[in-house]
């Protein structure tokens, strides 16, 4: 990723879209996910401990596209989906190849993992489409790591963001099932576009430059996926024409996992969404749910004025933004000191900060998907597989 400075002067209050968004109650916020282990030394966090966790630890390795480490992490990600997410999650790979400045004429494979869950009734009504009828909250992070220096892990960049997205998906999964089953059973499914809300996770490949960041040497996976989705047409009469149009908001996480992050609001057109996340953080802190005690909130620019939007960071969102997709970029500025160094490993993560991000992002997804009243009490045994293994995805 690379900082870009520009002039963005639209007022966020002038461009906030119409959106049904149900706030979580204090009770739901307090019980959304389990409390941390009493002693991290004797009871490592089952999801985010850098060494012993079932979710994050297997991602903390070199993940250069086309290498065994990259393939091992792909296997871990899909195995997590099989074990912990509802069988209705659609899993697909978007595959592409490209040469790079570091590999000469050799074609390097890049593979984007797309996870999607839509309401079960979509596409079942008379004359209804399927994919083109759902507005999808889209959560994204990249799972590849730098080619050089050799052995670079990329814990904040972006193993932790990938783990956070899978954590949030699992945390809201049962509530989605309960809400949609009740709606479908009561005949409320398919009652209008506002109810046709789905969620998808993009674990993107090839974000990192192989030699030096440029338009050609970066964002290999996201550029290919955005181009493919721009050219994919849904059936005539669908609510949305392409997969890009069906993205209600593209939320990109990057460089998360270090202490004291400062997350600016980068885009006036989605400042309203930034404000929602900032309010969630503020409420969680006032309720005593968050563990960290930073000098300032993670998201401290809720009151930002339109004339103060002056730049953004080039990242996987750019190919989508260039095609009209609305972006919420959750990336700290300045970048953490470990960025693109060998110190970006599990030993330099701040686990309480990661757990707080898990709470914040889970609450945001739950509110977006209108899950107030459907969330189960926090389950301390969350690492146990909830669904039987499937033979293939």
UniProtKB/TrEMBL annotation:
Where is the secretion signal located?
Answer: 1-20
A GO MF term = glutaminyl-peptide cyclotransferase activity
Q: What is its EC number?
A: 3.4.-.-
- The UniProt record lists the Peptidase M28 domain at 136-365
Q: Which UniProt keywords apply?
A: Acyltransferase, Hydrolase, Metal-binding, Protease, Signal, Transferase, Zinc
The record's listing under InterPro entries reads: M28_QC, Peptidase_M28, QC/QCL
Q: Which domain of life is it from?
A: Eukaryota
Q: Does the keyword 4Fe-4S apply?
A: no
Enzyme kind, highest EC tier:
hydrolase
Pfam families per record = Peptidase_M28
Q: Which GO terms describe its biological process?
A: proteolysis
Q: Which family does it belong to?
A: Belongs to the peptidase M28 family.
Name the chain's protein: Peptide hydrolase
